[in-house]
C-alpha cells in the first residue's frame, strides 16, 4: 500500500483487514523487533508544508527524505537541533531516512546533550490512529501547553500508536564556527574529563569518547568558539571534526552484535569495564558517557542485566535478543492500555516494541 | 465559569470519608475546618472559588498513595495542588473533592553535579531548586515569573516555561524522571538521571497533563552550570510592527539571545510609573539579554545592535553595569504588578508564530477598541508567547464577562494565525471551553483516551482541560 495523501492513508488504515508494517525509507529496518504485516509505505506523503525561517519553524510531511529537509534548511543556514542519527551505515543498507522514521524512533545525535532529543524539537504532529482517524496535536509554535502532549508520546513509539503523517519542528541557526577539543586519555580518565567539562559554563554541544580520546565540541560565533576552546584546552580540530561518524556509529558498521545503552554518565566506565570480561567492547561512547555503543560479547544479554541494576536501559540493536528493556508490570499495563486506545485492532507494527 | 454539580452522595458520606483519611495521615495533615479549607478554595485565578470537602497535606509518597487508594475506593475526586499559583484554575477544587497539597514534600533528595541532575520532592519551590545548587555555580533553567512561590509539582503539571526558555526550553525539556502515584495508589518511577527513559515517553505525556494522570511526588531535573555572565540591552521603537520585525531579524541572523521580552506603550507607562526604571516613553520596548563571558557578550550585543539599528530605534541602551542591568529588568519584572495598580486585569497566554506578531498586535488594538477595554501587551517575543493583559473593573457588573469575551476572541485569533490557546499557563478551567477552537472532536478524544488509561474513573482533577460537554460521559 502506498497512499499519495494523508486522507488516502487514513482510508487505507480504516479499511485494513490485518496487521500493517509502516515503512518510510527503510534505513532503520532492523531497529526494534521484527514485524509481520502488509507494508504501508508513507513515502507518497512528501514535501515541505511550511518553512518560516524567521520563526525558526518547519512543518514537513512524514515521507519526506531527511536529506531533502536538510538541504532546504542548509540554504537558510538553519538546522534540526538534535542532529539525527542515520542508521543506514549501522544496518548496512541503502535506505534513505525519512522524517516520519526519524520521529518514530526519536533519532537523536551528539547535540542531544545540549539541544535535546528529536522529541524536544518536535512541536507538532499529525497522525492516523488505528481507526483511520486523522489526529493533530501540538502545533507550529515553540511554546504550547494546550492539552496533552501526545507529540512526545508518538516520538519514539516506533509506529505502534499511529502512522505519523506530518511533523513540525523548531529549528536552530547553524553555528558560525565549530571546534573539537581532543584529550588522549584512557577510558575512565577520558570519561571523567568529559563530565568535568560538561559541568563548566562553556556550553558544550557534544561530548564523546572514542579511539582513545575524549572529544568535546563547542559551537557558535567565531569569537565565542575561540574563547571557549582556549578555556577548555586540549588539541584543537577546527570545523566539523569526527562527529558525523560518532553520530552514525560507523565504527560498528558490519558488526553482528550491537547494543545501545542509556545510563548515567558516571556509571559508564565501570559498566564498560565489567562487560569487557564477557567479551563486549565499547568503541563509541556519546552523551558524556550516557550513551554507550557495544559490540562483540558472548551472545548473552549481560548488558541488559548490568544496566537494569544501575537504572537505565539497554536496546539490542543487532543480535538475537528482544530489542527493548522489559517493562515493570505497572508500566507495561499503562503501555498496553495506551496501545489498546490508540490502535484498538492492534494493526500497527505489532510486537515491534515487545 | 461553569463547574459540575458536586456529588450529593459524596457530601453525605463526608464524615466517613474523612475518618478513613484521618487513619492514614499524621496529625495536622488533614484539614477539615471550614475556616481552614477556605485557604484552598482557589488558586491565582481568584475570580473563581469553592472550598473543597477537605485538604490533605501528606509528607511522603506512601501517604500520597494511601490517600489516593481511599479516594479511589470511595469515588472521591482529587485535585492535586502545588503552591496554588495556577493562573488557569488548575488547582481549583469542587465541593465534593479533596485537595491533595504537596507543600510538605519539599526536600532535596540528591544533588549530582557530575551527571548534572538534582532529585527533589515535588512540593519544593522552583527558585529553591536553584537555591540548592547555586553555591556550586549551577541553576535550574525554567523560570516562570512565579518562581519564588510556585512548586515543581505545578511546573510539571503545566509544563511551565519562563523568560529564558528561548535558550533553555521549558519544563518538559529539563525533566529527566519522576516518581508518581497513580489514582489507584500505585507508585511508579519513570526515567532518572540517564538521558532518555525506556519504552513510550510517559514522562513526556505526564508533563503538562495538568495533574490529571497522577500525583508526582519526586522529580529528577536537569541542572546546568551558570553562564559566566549576562547582560541586557533595551531598545525602543515607535511602532509595534517594527519591533516585531526586529525580533524576527535577530532570530534569523543566528543570534539566539537567552531572552527577548516585549512591552507595549500601556505597559511601559505603567511599569515606569510604578518602578521609575527610566524607561523611554515609546510605542514598543524590547529587552534582549545575552549570556557568556565578557568577550562573548560584547560580540553578541554588537550583532544585535547592528540589526536593531537597521530598524531605526528611537532608543538603544546597552547595560554597562550590574546596576543598569537590574534597572532594565526592574520594570519588566514588575510589569504585571504595575498593571494591577491601575486596574483589575486578566492575563492571557496564547502563543503565535513570531512572524505574525505585527498582525496580531494590530488586531488586538482593534478588538480592544471594539470592546472598550484597554489591553496591555508584555510577553516573551522570541518564542511568540504573548501575555495580553485585559484591564477591567471587577466591581462593575458585566465587566468581567466582557473581559472574558474579549480574551476568548484574542485567543481564537492566536489559533487562527497558527498559534495556540496557551503557551505556559495551562488550560485549567479558564480555557477549557475554548479547546474546540483548536482541536477537533477526534483530537480531544485522543487526549482523553490517555486519561482513560491512567485514571479510568476520571477522579483526578476531572473537570479541567477538556470542555465539560466532551468529558461529561467519562466523569463520575
Topology at a glance:
The complex is a heterodimer of chains A (354) and B (476).
Chain A: H1 6-15, E1 20-23, E2 38-41, E3 48-52, E4 57-61, H2 66-75, E5 78-79, H3 88-91, H4 99-104, H5 112-115, H6 118-121, E6 122-128, E7 134-138, H7 150-154, E8 163-170, E9 172-173, E10 177-184, H8 187-198, E11 206-210, E12 213-220, H9 222-232, E13 235-238, H10 243-248, E14 258-263, H11 268-276, E15 280-286, E16 291-296, H12 302-310, E17 312-318, H13 329-342
Chain B: H1 8-12, H2 14-24, E1 30-31, H3 34-37, E2 54-56, H4 61-74, E3 78-81, E4 98-101, E5 108-112, E6 117-121, H5 126-133, E7 138-139, H6 152-158, H7 165-168, H8 171-174, E8 175-181, E9 187-191, H9 202-206, E10 215-222, E11 224-225, E12 230-237, H10 240-252, E13 259-264, H11 265-275, E14 284-291, H12 294-309, E15 315-318, H13 322-333, H14 335-342, E16 344-347, H15 357-371, E17 375-380, E18 388-392, H16 399-416, H17 435-438, H18 441-454, H19 468-471
Parallel strand pairs in B: 2-4, 3-4
Antiparallel strand pairs in B: 1-2, 5-6, 6-10, 7-11, 8-9, 8-10, 12-14, 12-15, 13-14, 13-17, 16-18, 17-18
Description:
The complex is a heterodimer of chains A (354) and B (476). Chain A is an alpha+beta fold. Chain A has 3 domains: 168 residues, Uridine Diphospho-n-acetylenolpyruvylglucosamine Reductase, domain 3 (2-Layer Sandwich); 71 residues, Alpha-Beta Plaits (2-Layer Sandwich); 70 residues, Alpha-Beta Plaits, CATH 3.30.70. In chain A, 29% of the residues lie in helices and 26% in strands. Chain A is built from 13 helices and 17 strands. In chain A, strands 13-10-12-11-15-16-14-17 form an 8-stranded antiparallel β-sheet. A 5-stranded antiparallel β-sheet of chain A has the order 3-4-8-6-7. In chain A, a hairpin with a 2-residue loop joins strand 11 and strand 12. The longest helix of chain A is centred in the last third of the chain and has 14 residues. The model of chain A has no long low-confidence stretch (mean pLDDT 97). Chain B is of the alpha+beta class. Chain B contains 19 helices and 18 strands. In chain B, the strands form 4 sheets. In chain B, strands 15-12-14-13-17-18-16 form a 7-stranded antiparallel β-sheet, with helices on both faces. A 5-stranded antiparallel β-sheet of chain B has the order 5-6-10-8-9. Chain B has a 4-stranded mixed β-sheet with strand order 1-2-4-3. In chain B, helix 11 crosses helix 14 and helix 15 packs antiparallel against helix 16. Chain B is globular.
Amino acid at each position: 500500500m502506498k497512499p499519495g495523501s494523508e486522507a488516502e492513508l487514513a482510508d487505507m488504515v480504516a479499511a485494513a483487514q490485518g496487521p500493517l508494517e509502516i515503512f518510510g525509507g527503510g534505513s532503520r529496518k532492523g531497529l526494534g523487533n521484527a514485524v509481520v504485516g502488509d507494508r504501508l509505505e508513507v513515502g507518497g506523503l512528501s514535501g515541505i508544508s511550511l518553512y518560516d525561517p524567521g520563526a525558526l519553524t518547519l512543518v514537513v510531511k512524514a515521507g519526506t527524505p531527511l536529506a531533502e529537509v536538510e538541504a532546504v534548511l542548509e540554504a537558510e543556514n538553519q538546522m534540526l537541533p538534535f542532529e539525527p542519527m542515520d542508521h543506514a551505515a549501522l544496518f548496512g543498507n541503502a535506505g534513505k531516512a525519512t522524517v516520519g522514521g526519524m520521529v518514530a524512533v526519536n533519532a537523536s545525535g551528539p547535540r542531544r546533550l545540549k539541544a535535546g532529543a528529536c522529541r524536544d524539537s518536535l512541536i507538532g504532529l499529525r497522525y492516523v490512529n488505528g481507526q483511520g482517524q486523522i489526529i493533530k496535536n501540538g502545533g507550529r509554535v515553540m511554546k504550547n501547553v494546550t492539552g496533552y502532549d501526545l507529540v512526545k508520546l508518538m516520538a519514539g513509539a516506533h509506529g505502534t500508536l499511529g502512522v505519523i503523517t506530518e511533523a513540525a519542528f523548531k529549528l536552530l541557526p547553524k553555528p558560525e564556527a565549530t571546534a573539537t577539543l581532543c584529550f588522549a586519555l584512557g577510558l575512565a580518565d577520558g570519561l571523567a574529563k568529559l563530565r568535568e567539562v560538561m559541568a563548566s559554563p562553556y556550553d558544550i554541544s557534544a561530548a564523546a569518547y572514542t579511539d582513545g580520546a575524549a572529544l568535546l565540541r563547542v559551537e557558535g560565533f567565531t569569537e565565542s568558539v575561540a574563547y571557549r576552546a582556549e578555556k577548555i584546552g586540549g588539541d584543537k580540530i577546527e570545523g566539523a571534526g569526527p562527529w558525523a561518524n560518532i553520530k552514525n556509529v560507523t565504527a560498528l558498521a558490519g558488526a553482528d552484535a550491537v547494543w545501545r545503552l542509556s545510563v548515567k554518565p558516571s556509571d559508564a566506565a565501570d559498566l564498560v569495564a565489567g562487560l569487557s570480561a564477557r567479551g563486549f567492547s565499547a568503541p563509541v561512547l556519546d552523551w558524556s558517557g550516557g550513551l554507550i555503543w557495544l559490540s562483540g560479547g558472548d551472545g548473552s544479554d549481560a548488558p541488559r542485566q548490568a544496566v537494569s541494576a544501575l537504572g537505565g536501559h539497554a536496546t539490542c540493536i543487532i543480535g538475537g535478543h528482544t530489542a527493548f528493556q522489559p517493562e515493570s508490570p505497572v508500566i507495561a499495563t499503562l503501555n498496553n492500555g495506551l496501545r489498546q486506545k490508540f490502535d484498538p485492532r492492534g494493526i500497527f507494527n505489532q510486537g515491534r516494541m515487545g | 465559569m461553569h463547574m459540575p454539580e458536586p456529588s450529593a452522595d459524596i457530601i453525605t458520606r463526608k464524615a466517613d470519608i474523612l475518618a478513613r483519611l484521618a487513619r492514614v495521615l499524621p496529625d495536622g495533615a488533614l484539614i477539615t475546618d471550614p475556616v481552614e479549607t477556605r485557604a484552598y478554595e482557589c488558586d491565582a485565578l481568584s475570580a473563581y472559588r469553592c472550598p473543597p470537602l477537605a485538604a490533605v497535606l501528606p509528607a511522603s509518597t506512601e501517604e500520597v498513595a494511601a490517600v489516593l487508594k481511599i479516594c479511589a475506593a470511595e469515588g472521591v475526586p482529587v485535585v492535586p495542588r502545588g503552591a496554588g499559583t495556577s493562573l488557569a484554575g488548575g488547582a481549583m477544587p469542587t465541593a465534593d473533592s479533596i485537595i491533595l497539597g504537596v507543600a510538605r514534600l519539599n526536600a532535596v533528595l540528591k544533588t549530582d553535579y557530575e551527571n548534572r541532575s538534582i532529585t527533589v520532592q515535588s512540593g519544593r519551590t522552583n527558585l529553591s531548586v536553584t537555591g540548592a545548587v547555586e553555591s556550586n555555580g549551577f541553576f535550574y533553567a525554567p523560570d516562570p515569573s512565579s518562581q519564588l512561590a510556585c512548586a515543581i509539582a505545578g511546573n510539571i503539571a503545566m509544563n511551565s516555561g519562563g523568560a529564558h526558555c528561548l535558550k533553555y526550553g521549558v519544563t518538559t525539556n529539563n525533566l529527566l524522571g519522576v516518581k508518581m502515584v497513580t489514582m489507584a495508589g500505585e507508585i511508579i518511577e519513570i526515567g532518572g538521571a540517564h538521558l532518555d527513559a525506556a519504552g513510550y515517553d510517559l514522562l513526556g505525556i505526564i508533563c503538562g497533563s495538568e495533574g490529571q494522570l497522577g500525583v508526582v511526588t519526586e522529580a529528577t531535573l536537569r541542572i546546568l552550570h551558570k553562564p559566566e555572565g549576562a547582560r541586557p540591552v533595551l531598545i525602543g521603537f515607535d511602532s509595534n510592527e517594527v519591533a516585531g520585525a526586529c525580533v524576527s531579524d535577530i532570530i534569523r541572523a543566528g543570534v539566539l539571545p537567552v531572552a527577548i521580552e516585549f512591552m507595549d506603550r500601556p505597559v511601559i507607562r505603567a511599569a515606569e510609573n510604578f518602578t521609575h526604571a527610566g524607561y523611554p516613553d515609546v510605542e514598543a520596548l524590547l529587552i534582549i539579554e545575552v549570556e557568556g563571558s565578557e568577550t562573548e557578550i560584547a560580540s553578541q550585543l554588537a550583532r544585535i545592535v547592528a540589526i536593531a539599528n537597521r530598524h531605526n530605534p528611537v532608543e538603544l541602551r546597552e547595560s554597562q553595569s550590574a546596576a543598569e542591568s537590574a534597572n532594565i529588568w526592574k520594570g519588566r519584572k514588575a510589569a504585571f504588578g504595575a498593571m494591577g495598580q491601575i486596574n483589575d486585569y486578566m492575563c492571557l497566554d496564547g502563543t503565535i508564530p513570531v512572524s505574525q506578531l505585527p498582525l496580531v498586535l494590530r488586531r488586538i488594538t482593534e478588538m480592544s477598541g471594539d470592546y472598550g477595554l484597554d489591553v496591555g501587551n508584555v510577553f516573551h517575543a522570541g518564542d511568540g508567547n504573548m501575555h495580553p493583559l485585559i484591564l477591567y473593573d471587577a466591581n462593575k457588573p458585566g465587566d468581567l464577562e466582557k473581559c472574558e469575551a474579549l480574551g476568548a476572541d484574542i485567543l481564537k485569533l492566536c489559533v487562527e494565525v497558527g498559534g495556540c490557546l496557551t503557551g505556559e499557563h495551562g488550560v485549567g478551567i479558564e480555557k477549557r471551553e475554548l479547546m474546540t477552537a483548536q482541536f477537533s472532536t477526534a483530537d480531544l478524544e485522543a487526549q482523553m483516551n490517555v486519561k482513560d488509561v491512567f485514571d479510568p474513573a476520571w477522579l483526578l482533577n476531572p473537570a479541567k482541560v477538556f470542555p465539560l460537554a466532551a468529558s461529561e460521559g467519562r466523569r463520575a
